[in-house]
């Protein structure tokens, strides 16, 4: 074996995921039929859970075009695409001497990342859950005493019903 | 994290594969030889990306197989120093953390690269295993029972690649020693934004509220 070129080009996580998908990798149970090695599926399983799972070539090309003005190093761009940092605290470890080099522009860069690169579904659900929790707490605060009482009564009624063998609701008196 | 590497290899194609199209048969043989194996100074072989050229096809005397010289590109996993990677906690002991990516398990975060000040809290039933706790803002924590910044494996962990080493194959190995790892990644979480993801989600929420 002869290594002709150790680094014939860096690949983003998206490119590897896209390559594995093109070969037939998916979350589908039919994966046993696909001519892909188990080790490749492990890589696929890792990447499909990462921030790159719903990126497209268009997203990446647009980001590469729009981030040129920031004069980022190739490694930094690669890291940003792979991780999709959506806050200052997330982008800070990726960019070397971020304060010195960018200052206030750093927030602008984060906004660009959030705007251009799509949000992974896992992140969406987490944010939705936190928003729901916030809404619920505010609703509870706004409720009057009477409303809370009726809500409690409704809960009691629900608990007092049992299911018959047929699956019908049966009231327990 | 992933790179393309151009490799030239001379391989023997067994006769039972000759009924297949040549490039398909060669690809299968290359996958058998390289996939999920570490090549020193190159990285972990993930997949055969494409075959650039196939030369030869000689059958040597006394051999029933044809021999080809193949030039191909391989996707390899070789993180660069300074790269940020997201991994899962596999094990936590007094020496530090052991992380895993699912397809690669030899990632270690030693004690000196954990956020300081950190302390180790061993489990009562297993003295070797335990959890690491980052003692940040101790005054606040003194009021609450449960420490806030715990590394317990419920979260994904972001770490920065500190070094990638390819240890030489040992001639002898003691019976009770760990299995030989041909590639070892040492990581660091001693920086803002690194460590369990939830630590910094909390920080963001606090920032948003203010």
Automatic annotation (TrEMBL), chain A:
Q: Name one GO biological process term.
A: transcription initiation at RNA polymerase III promoter
Per UniProt, the ranges with Basic and acidic residues bias are 125-144
| Gene Ontology cellular component terms for the protein in this record | RNA polymerase III complex
Which InterPro entries is this protein grouped with?
A: HRDC-like_sf, RNA_pol_Rpb4/RPC9_core, Rpb4/RPC9, Rpb4/RPC9_sf, RPC9
Pfam families recorded for this chain?
A: RNA_pol_Rpb4
Quote one Gene Ontology molecular function term: nucleotide binding
Compositional bias of kind Acidic residues: 163-173
Domain RNA polymerase Rpb4/RPC9 core per the UniProt entry, residue ranges: 3-120
Ranges where the record places region Disordered: 117-173
Keywords, A to Z, come to: DNA-directed RNA polymerase, Nucleus, Transcription
The protein's location, in the record's own words, is:
Nucleus
Recorded family membership:
Belongs to the eukaryotic RPC9 RNA polymerase subunit family.
Q: Please state what the protein is called.
A: DNA-directed RNA polymerase III subunit RPC9
- Origin organism is Durio zibethinus
Write the gene name.
Answer: LOC111291568
Automatic annotation (TrEMBL), chain B:
Is Transcription among this UniProt entry's keywords? yes
Which domain of life does the protein's organism represent? Eukaryota
Q: Which SUPFAM superfamilies match?
A: N-terminal, heterodimerisation domain of RBP7 (RpoE), Nucleic acid-binding proteins
Q: Which Gene3D superfamilies match?
A: Nucleic acid-binding proteins, RNA polymerase Rpb7-like, N-terminal domain
Annotated keywords: DNA-directed RNA polymerase, Nucleus, Transcription
Please list the residue ranges annotated as the RNA polymerase III subunit Rpc25 domain: 83-200
Q: Which family does it belong to?
A: Belongs to the eukaryotic RPB7/RPC8 RNA polymerase subunit family.
Q: What is this protein called?
A: DNA-directed RNA polymerase subunit
- Species of provenance: Durio zibethinus
Q: What is the lineage of its organism?
A: Eukaryota, Viridiplantae, Streptophyta, Embryophyta, Tracheophyta
């Amino acid at each position: 074996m002869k290594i002709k070129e150790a680094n014939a080009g860096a690949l983003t996580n998206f490119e590897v995921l896209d390559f594995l998908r093109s070969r037939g990798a998916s979350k589908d149970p039919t994966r046993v039929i696909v001519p892909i090695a188990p080790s490749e599926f492990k890589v696929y399983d890792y990447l499909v859970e990462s921030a790159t799972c719903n990126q497209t070539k268009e997203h990446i090309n647009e980001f590469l075009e729009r981030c040129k003005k920031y004069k980022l190093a190739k490694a930094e761009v690669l890291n940003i695409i792979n991780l999709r940092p959506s806050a200052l605290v997330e982008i800070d470890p990726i960019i070397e001497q971020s304060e010195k080099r960018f200052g206030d522009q750093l927030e602008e860069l984060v906004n660009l990342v959030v705007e251009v690169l799509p949000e992974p579904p896992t992140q969406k659900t987490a944010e939705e859950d936190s928003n729901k929790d916030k809404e619920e707490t505010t609703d509870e605060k706004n409720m009057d005493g009477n409303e809370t009482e009726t809500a409690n009564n409704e809960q009691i009624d629900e608990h007092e019903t049992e299911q018959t063998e047929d699956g019908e609701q049966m009231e327990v008196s | 994290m992933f790179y393309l590497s151009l490799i030239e290899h001379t391989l023997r194609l067994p006769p039972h594969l000759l009924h297949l199209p040549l490039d398909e048969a060669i690809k299968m043989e290359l996958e058998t030889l390289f996939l999920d194996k570490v090549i020193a100074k190159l990285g972990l072989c993930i997949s055969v990306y494409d075959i650039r050229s196939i030369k030869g096809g000689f059958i040597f005397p006394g051999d029933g197989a044809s021999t080809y010289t193949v030039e191909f590109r391989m996707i390899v996993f070789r993180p660069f120093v300074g790269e940020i990677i997201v991994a899962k906690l596999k094990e936590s002991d007094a020496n530090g953390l052991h992380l895993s990516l699912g397809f690669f398990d030899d990632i270690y975060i030693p004690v000196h690269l954990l956020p300081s000040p950190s302390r180790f809290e061993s489990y009562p039933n297993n003295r070797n295993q335990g959890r690491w706790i980052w003692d940040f803002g101790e005054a606040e924590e003194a009021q609450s029972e449960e420490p806030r910044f715990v590394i317990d494996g419920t979260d994904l962990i972001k770490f920065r690649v500190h070094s990638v080493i390819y240890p030489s194959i040992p001639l002898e190995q003691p019976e009770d020693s760990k299995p030989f790892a041909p590639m070892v990644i040492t990581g660091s979480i001693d920086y803002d934004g690194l460590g369990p993801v939830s630590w910094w989600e909390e920080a963001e929420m606090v920032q948003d509220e203010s």
